[in-house]
Amino acid sequence: MNKLFNMSLSRRLVIFILVDLLGLALIMGIIMYMMQNTMAESTKAFVNSYAEGLEDTVNKEISEIMYTGISLSYNSSVIEFFHNYNNNQFSREIFNQIKPMTDLIIKQNKCIEDILFISKDNKIILSNQIYKNIDLSPILLKKDISGSFFTINKPKIDYPNIYYSGPTFAYAIDVYMVNTKGLNRHDIGTIVFLCSLRNTENYILEYAGFRVEIGGPDSVILRNNTSESGKAGNLHNVEIPVKYTDWNIKISLAKPYAGYINPYTTTFILLLLIYSMLSITAILLIIRQSIQKPVKKLLYDISKITPGKESIARVRVSNSVEIGMISNYINNMIDRIENLSEINTKNKLEIYKLEISKKQTELLALRYQINPHFLYNTLECIRSIALSNGITSIQEITVAMSNMFRYSINGMEKVPLSSELAIIQDYFRIIAIRYNYRYRLEVNIKSELNDCIIPKMILQPIVENAMIHGLSKKASGCIWITGTIHNGDAVIEVKNDGKIIELEQLAVIRQALKGGPQTCRDDRIGLSNISQRIRYHYGENYGLEIDSQNNAGTCVKIRLPIIKEY
């Protein structure tokens, strides 16, 4: 035993696996021997269970057909129909009652495919014309057929795995005429039901591997086409008579059924579980001796390593080859960490400070660059109105400007989208008065975006550019602001139907929006600044896009993350 534990881990595992496989082969041999002894009984029980279910299905269909036939033969309208026909008094009214009745029976009972009304002189006086392809002479020529079943002889046609060709048998029942006292009972006609065992077909198709044949000594009603069965040497055969007929159900199975759970299954499973538990226990013992203890010591040494100290403790090298290699790797890693830690820490701190300072400066510069541009245009608007319209509109403009100034200098860097839209409404109120209400503003923002937090003053400059560069030289026009959610982000579009941007100028603006050199005019530098602000706040996946086409106008699309907390 000591020699075994002193071996390397790989050698011990090889020896254990060989012993384990030998024991597993022995157990499997015992299981196969016991299974062979019980397979025959399992298969027989399965075939008998299948046969009982098939017998119940066939008898149920036969009984339903008989019950339908008896009920129809005692129907007063049916009796009157036969009586009138025999007396040459055909009634269209009665015919119109019976035909829907037979059609409903055929529709509700899948087994019945046609119903024939046959007079005493063997003439078919009502049917769905299925009988044209069927030889009915055995029924028409036979006497005393009431309550009898007949097979229909006709060529067979393959139908999935079933030999099927429409109606395969018939049920005949006589219709009698009696007086009110129940006397003078005499035959006035016959009702023949052309049928097939539809539910039985479905039952057979659900279970593969059996050969099933239903029929009489010289005829077949139903037979499947299972190629594995019907050969010499069938293991199990069952033959069951069908009630009310001279037919039999013949069932055979060529293969033993392995799916049946025999009484030894629990024993087999328990034996395998015990063996598996013993195997796992042995593996755990080997792992504990070779890996767990050395790893435990290694983890203890690693827990003593304290980052931040000038000298980091090294781990002890284990006698185990595998754990010893890991210990050496850890010690080498500690050496490299000590050499790089101080340099990396200093460099990262300096870079972080520089980046923070740079972004703060850029954000302040961008914001101060946008606000004067906006204030200049607003004051120019007030001057133009005062000169052209007098003082009647000054009060409204002053209120709107007061709201905008207060909003601009409130010190908040980010605001809800609803606040930004309110300022745009104030701005457009000034525009409407100045241009005598020739321009419209339509806002359609998804309600979920109203409380979305965005950088302040990113929409108003876009609306102002749309007004100045797109609509101001047109007699009338409209600016649409829409807000939707796409792939989890907020997408806000500012569109106008005014003058479009030339292709060369559009290419320059797009290059600036992507962070390129700002070579466009000063009055359009605001778009580039807004795009840079958005990228600084949220990353390179967000910002502005612009498009301008004939018959479509100019559209600026803003993509922002949906954030609802400051």
Protein architecture, described:
- This protein has 566 residues and is of the alpha+beta class.
- It folds into two domains: 37-253, Beta-Lactamase; 353-561, 2-Layer Sandwich (Heat Shock Protein 90), CATH 3.30.565.
- It contains 13 helices and 18 strands.
- The chain has helices at 2-6, 9-73, 76-86, 92-108, 137-141, 198-206, 265-303, 321-389, 394-408, 417-434, 460-471, 503-513, 525-538, and strands spanning 112-118, 124-126, 148-151, 158-159, 162-163, 169-177, 186-195, 210-215, 222-223, 236-241, 248-253, 414-416, 439-445, 453-455, 477-486, 489-496, 543-549, 553-561.
- It has a five-stranded antiparallel sheet. The protein has a five-stranded mixed sheet with strand order 13-15-16-18-17.
- Strand 1 (112-118) and strand 2 form a beta hairpin.
- It is flat and about 115 Å long.
- Mean pLDDT is 77; it is low at 155-161 and 227-233.
| Number of spatially distinct domains | 2
Shape: flat
**Distance between termini?**
69 Å
What helical percentage do the residues reach? 40-55%
